[in-house]
Structure formats: structure tokens, C-alpha cells
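Supplementary Methods S3. Input chains for the assembly prediction are listed below.
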Amino acid sequence: MKVVALAGGVGGAKLAAGLQDALPDGDLTVVVNTADDFDLWGLRICPDLDTVMYTLADFANPVTGWGVRKESFNSLGMISVYGEDCWFKLGDKDLATHILRTNRLREGASLTEVTAGLVEALGARARILPMCDEPVATILDTQEGPMEFQVYFVRRGQKDDVRGVELRGIEDAQITESVSVALAGADLILLCPSNPIVSIWPVLAVPGMRKALEASPAPKVAVSPIIGGRALKGPADRMLSSLGHESSATGVARIYEGLIDGMVVDLVDTAERAEIEALGVRVLETEAVMRDAEDRTRLAREVLDFGAKLAGRS
Amino acid sequence: MKVVALAGGVGGAKLAAGLQDALPDGDLTVVVNTADDFDLWGLRICPDLDTVMYTLADFANPVTGWGVRKESFNSLGMISVYGEDCWFKLGDKDLATHILRTNRLREGASLTEVTAGLVEALGARARILPMCDEPVATILDTQEGPMEFQVYFVRRGQKDDVRGVELRGIEDAQITESVSVALAGADLILLCPSNPIVSIWPVLAVPGMRKALEASPAPKVAVSPIIGGRALKGPADRMLSSLGHESSATGVARIYEGLIDGMVVDLVDTAERAEIEALGVRVLETEAVMRDAEDRTRLAREVLDFGAKLAGRS
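Predicted C-alpha cells for the full assembly:
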């Protein structure tokens, strides 16, 4: 079963890792948000791509979910000696990724090509595709004025109320050939349990993406990132609320209404089943919290079974 | 006494460190060879500038003479995981220098400006100036064909015979305002015990440099990098021979003939005094090997005294 998973950072990477374990090698393609990419000291940093890549290649820090495990921060310490503000925690090993990516991009390779090279070298068993090759920047509207995503997310610790989201540059982006081909060949399309506003929405907003999704006969299934009204990680719950959505599985289902055929919600959210089904979305209730590799693979298998059922395969 | 020292890498940096200790803060300006600068993975690496900077700011690795002390190589290890050939040993702390320099150059700052910022942050007590702001590349003619300097020096361990030296780009370079001003205000100009062919010659070859040196009334003193016919470090002795020079203090004096007023040679080379003096060059014989900080400062003081004597000051 060829599966395409749309993903952001840590939460999406966890499910993607489960899917990679549950599927034959090469059957999984992860299409990753790149709207929170940014430049730091001239290096192109792609936080979500890296989180997915490190996770799938088994290089990820299992405690933080982002960054490389057994990491050191000696370069950053020296950058700090040079007087720079080191609010974004770049590890020494992680820096290697940014240095090589930046160089290959400067040499003229596309982000899709560069990512493929890095992923192959690290040995992930899935394809990892950026949502597009053009730079897109998520700019948040806050009381403090417009704010770049990583400034909001890392530097200011997600303390600001988000009143609006702009995807700067999205109108000049376009779906890549690689993403188009993957979607056209997909038997199942998954929306990972990533932030619906700043992780999944940018992917869906790439010109040509929604059309390609709608053209695919594959069932589309979202896994709710909201469990019991709360995001397991990150600011998705507060962001949903401040932007006028409901911070619940139903609230997420409404955002994806018209696109998804099925939704996976946690057992604590069974009360929402009827409301979600009223949107024309089938519901799978299961234990949706991924605490370890076993959880990830089990959830992935359940999601795949659910998808196969929706496709009328079983 | 305002002193300008022309320097290459490790040997030059050692004497420069001694001069920094022997002179009041701010009285020393080191003009550094940049013809062995190169790009690696998109980063601009300036080996001699960095060696001088790290040494004067007391960040240098005392064992190797180059690189930063208490260094780690985790980033390079990851770059190697990505399949790159890691023949140039970039440490994690050292990488910080290259990342920030590359970024500031890309933002439009000159190498002179960038270097000044880095040097100030690290806290050296001397000014460190690149010989020019334009990129110049030392290309060596060998049996294996033309070879970039760092490939010869690091990758191939100086095993090739050097039959010729080209300074690619030197014709488009020019002496900087900072170097001009420093030379014009100098009471003493020193040629450090660096490789005369690939460290000092590129500095002298910068258009406008020799004219500025000749226009200065300050005595010019060279410290011989050849002691007892041998280079203490690096391939200067073999390079002198293969290029048709004599590998001796006299051979070095001949290269600098017409430019220098004095030469500092080691006690083992006292037999060469007459030959060097016949070139119109005054000779100071002393213990010229710098084993530790004490040696460096002692030699620096003797060189400064010798220079003052040549200037008729004492």
C-alpha cells in the first residue's frame, strides 16, 4: 500500500516513523511542511524536514524529538563567544546538515534534490519530500506585531497570542513533480497529528496541492493532534482557540472538512464521534498518544487498517 | 613603537604573539597572507588569518599551532556520515568562525571588516588585517599538475615537488586602505618567520604593497624561517630548493634583497653572517626557535631592539 503522509515536526515525525516500520521499504512518502524554514547566519534551516529525516533515519534525539541524539553544542558556544544571540539551539552534528544543505542549494540543487541526498546518506527507508522547492515563510500576527515562526516558536517560547497567519511567498510556490507523482500513486493519504494551522495548512496551501489531493481517489485520513482538548506538544490548542477554532478533534475535523474521509481520535474523545461523523467523516477511536516506538507502530498499523477499510479493501 | 608584521600561519603567529606581549596594546598590526584561503562546503576558510587570530586571542591549540584548543570534531563526523571527504580538519568551534565570516562576507562586508569584528570579539590586543580584500588563490605547479594550496598542504601532506607558484587573482587585488595606513605609520616593519614563497611572497605581491613598503622610512627586518638549513615546520625548505633557491637564511635574505634592512638568524647560522651582510643586510644572531611563550616574547623583544637600532633610535 503506497502511503503519502503530510507532516510537520515532532508529532508528524513520530507517526511517520511508525508508518515506516509498518510498511514495506519504499512504500511511504512523507510530504513535509517547509513554511517554518528560515536562515540563520547564512545557513538554511528546515526544522520540520530535519525532524522527520532524523526520526526516520534513527538519528533523532529521543528526549526532545528534534535535533540529533548524542549531540554537542561547541560550535554554538563559540558563535556565542563571537557575540551572537544563540536562541536557536543548533547542535554540532545538526550544523553539518545545514552547512551541506545550504551549500548544495547555493550550487543550484532544488530543496527536493538536496533533501533526497541527505535522506539517502542517513539511511531512512522512506522518501521525504519538502512541500515545495520555493521558500515560504510563516508569519504570525501577534500583539507584538508580525513575527517569524521560529521567533514565536523558539525564541519567545510560544507565549504570544496568534491572531492571524500569513504564508509569505506561498503564491509563488508550486507543487513539485515529486509530490504530484507521489499523490497520484497513493493508495492512502494521511494528515499526520501535526499542528493544523502552521504545519498541515502550509502544505495544503501550496498551489496545486489541494487539486492534486482532490484528484486522488485514495482515502484521506487525518490523525487528530488534539487529545482531550489539548495538544500533546506545542501550541496547537492555544492557536486553534485564538484563531476562532475549537481546540478539539472536532475543531480539527472542521478545518479539514471536505478534504478528509476519515479521522483518528483518541479514546478520550469518543464523545465527539457523532459530531465528526456529521461532517461526513468516518471515525476511528484508538489510543492515539505515541509514547514509544511500539505505540508509533501500533498506531500506524491501525491507521493503515482504517485507511484500507475506507478504500473498501477489507 | 608602531610595528607592522607581515605573517603567514603558525610561525608568523608565534612571533606575532611575542610582539603582542612585548608591545603596548594597539601598537602591533599583523598583515596576514590570504592566498591560501579557500571555500569548503560553501564556507570561506582563511587558515592563516585564523591561526594568527586564535594565537593572538589565546584561543589556539598549543600542540598543533592551528585550530582552537579544547576542540571537538562532531560536526565533521556528521559531514562524513553524509558521505563527504573530510580531509580538512574543521573543528566545531573553528566552524563558528567560518560560518560567521562567510555570512558577513555574503552580507557585503569586506574581509578586513569581518576580520576586525571577529578579532575584537575574541579579544586579541593587536590589529589583524588580511593582505587584501579580494580573493587570491595560491596554485602550485607540481608533477600532478596545478594544485590548490590546501590540497597540497593538507590533503596530500606536502609530498609533491613544487615547481612553480601562481597567485591566481592577485592582479585584481589591491592594497587596502587599512594596510596602507598601517604601513605609513609604522616605525618598524617585520617579515615574520613564515614561508617566504607561499606566505610572505603573496603579501608582497599585492598590487601597491611593495610601493607602500618602499615608501615607508621604517626599517624592515626579516626573521629567518630557515634554521640550520631546515624549516622548523612546513615545507619551506623543500619548496625553496625545488624552486631554485638555497634553503638557508642566506637564501631567504636573497629573496628579500632590496626590501629588508636587517635579518634575524639563529645562532646555528652565524657562519652565514658575512654572506647576508654582503647583500647590504644587517644581521642579528640569536636563539630564533620559539618553543614556548617565553621564547616568543624574548625573541620579539630582541627583534624590536634590533629594529630600533636600525632606525637609529638607540
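Residues 3-137+169-310 of chain B form a domain with the Rossmann fold fold (CATH 3.40.50.10680). Chain B has a mean pLDDT of 95.
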